[in-house]
Amino acid sequence: MGFIWGKEDLKKLVWHKNSLVRSWACERMKTFYGEAGLEVMERLLKDRDEDVLLGALDYIQTYPDPRFGDEILRLYKKNNGVVAGMAAKALAQLKDERLVDAYERKDFKIDSEEVFHTWMALGRLGTSPARERLRALLEKDSQDVDPIFIKALLTALLIAKEDVTYILKFYSNYYKDFGSEII
């Protein structure tokens, strides 16, 4: 049984002038052709529409392919917000250690979604430099930071397989007035 939309038809549609059509073609390519449809990524990762980029980055996270690492890194550096966050997650999925350096150099605008995705990506990367960066963030003025950010950092450290004693020590210092609630 063949598909109504063949692979070649979908490849043509990723060049369509309407971004909804390009996004739809990306989704269909992922659903019907999976890893075999990654050839459209070269085009989709250069799209200017945010929804198309998010679809392409989701595709890469499902079917990681290192040949797109440079383009995803470029997206991370160039964008802010959810696109940068999803690019960070895709880089972590690719185990691309350049994410740590790019994070260090990034000029962040306050966007919690980007920050949370990037921290989780550093956690998924799980390398020593990524853990060190997360620890440094946690230790930096954590008393004046929103507890939601602290929770995100701790979650990222757990994902990175940080030593639990480090996290418990942080908890004991940060929440010293709430010891019974922690236990």
How large is the share of residues in beta strands? under 5%
**Helical residues, percent:** 55-70%
End-to-end Cα distance, whole Å, is 58 Å
Q: Stretches where pLDDT falls below 50 for ≥5 residues?
A: none
The secondary-structure element order is HHHHHHHHHHHH
Mean pLDDT: 87
Give the overall silhouette.
elongated
* β-strand number: 0
What structural category arises from helix and sheet content?
mainly alpha
Give the arrangement of secondary structure elements.
Blueprint (H helix, E strand, L loop, with lengths): L6 H7 L5 H15 L7 H4 L5 H13 L6 H10 L2 H13 L4 H8 L6 H14 L2 H12 L7 H13 L4 H11 L4 H4 L1
Helix pairs in contact: 1-2, 2-4, 4-6, 5-6, 6-8, 8-9, 8-10, 9-10
Folded structure, characterized:
This protein is an all-alpha fold. It contains twelve helices and no strands. The protein has helices at 7-13, 19-33, 41-44, 50-62, 69-78, 81-93, 98-105, 112-125, 128-139, 147-159, 164-174, 179-182. Helix 2 packs parallel to helix 4 (50-62) and helix 9 (128-139) packs antiparallel against helix 10 (147-159). It is elongated, with a radius of gyration of 19 Å. The chain starts with 6 loop residues before the first helix and ends with a helix. The model has no long low-confidence stretch (mean pLDDT 87).
